Structure formats: C-alpha cells, structure tokens
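Data card: per-record layout.
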Amino acid sequence: MVDALFGVPRLVAVYDALDRGRKDLGHYAAMVEEFGVRRVLDVGCGTGELSTLLAGRGVDVVGVDPAEASLECAKGKEFADRVRWIHGDATTLPPLQVDLAVMTGNVAQVFLTAEQWAATLDGVHAALRPGGRFVFETRDPARRAWEEWTREQTHQVVTVPGVDTVENWTDLVSVELPFVTFHATYVFASDGAVLTSDSTLWFRERAEVEESLTAAGFRVDEVREAPDRPGREFVFVTTRP
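The structure for this 241-residue chain is written out next.
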C-alpha cells in the first residue's frame, strides 16, 4: 500500500517543497557521469526529480513508481516527456537492459518483509544488462535517525507558490527494531484541512543488506558514505556480473 504522502494528490502537490535540500540527487547524477552510463532505471522515482534531471542531460531514463499521483506530478515537470514512466514497481517491469538502476530517498527501507525485498532485488537484477550497476542508500541504524523525528525537530511552515501554505511536522509512533513507524501531519492554511500520512521503515544492518544482495546475484563493489549526510547512511554500489 502506498503511503498517503505519495498517493494523495493534495499532499503530492506540496511534497517537493516540503522535502527541501535534496543534495543527494546531485550525487546520483554524478555517479551517472562517473560510470559513463546512458540508460538508467529510477526505482521508486516518486515525483520524478532525479528522472527529469537526468533526462534533461540526455540520459535515457525509465521511472517506475507504485503511486499514480506521484507519477502524475512527475509528468508535469520539464523534460518529463523524455522519460518513460511506468506505474508499478521493480517486480512488474517490462524487459529492460539498463546500465544503472538507482533507488534514492531511502526507498530500500520501505520493503517490510524479506520476501518483498528479495522480489525487488530480483526485478532490478533482471532489468540490468550484464555488467550493469545497482546503487541505492539505506540509513545506518546505529545513527538512530528516528530520534530526530519529533514535532520539535521537524516542524516547518512552507509556502508553496500557487498552491498553499502548509504547516508540517512528524511524530515518532513506535520503535520496534528493526521497524520504525512515524506519523506526519499537514495543515493547509487556505481551508484548515488536516491530512496525515503514516509510514513504517525497516532499518537493516549493513551485513544483512550485503547478504541479501549476494543472494540475489549482485556483487557488492563498495559501500560509500552519502556525501550530503556523512556517517548517516550506507550507499551500496553493486554490479550484476
């Protein structure tokens, strides 16, 4: 099931403005240049920020996401007409032979069972050409990121031009490791509407993620730090041999 934040059109319309500071997208774009790839699969592409960024640079991009509202938002952006958009997930892809598959925004943490994660890895593996790479990040549980998911530390009021002014904050609901659940609230100034979105993430240890990748047929080449969040995340760089 898609979280409301990604599936409710009114929330999707303010998502990019509230999720400010996506410096990670520049790092992924830099890896496209580093690896010299021309065909990219953006798994969990959401509102299409990375997909359209790459398409604007002449990269052949396929963006896939299970949230139809997010895809509709993505399709309205500059260079969206150069992206092949697919409503679905990594398990429902048509035949592809991409050079690089990416999952940004800690998408890897939304899969809450070993079976879901394994099926996703199998789908990505099948979409890559031999020698193609799969790159994604996931939070290091040792950093206990959830301790910062409180109203005091997340509260913001953002004016989205042409849309509305939105008050937003996050409340931590439960920590039952490896699972963490949180509740986000959005208050729209124009009519006082209050919308909410609940999310649960799986915080896996590095060794556990590496083991799952090996089991799915990937070679783990290196585990980098996220340049914009040093020490907070694992960035896995893998290859389909």
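Known properties of this structure: The chain has eight helices and eleven strands. The mean pLDDT is 96.

See the next section for split statistics.
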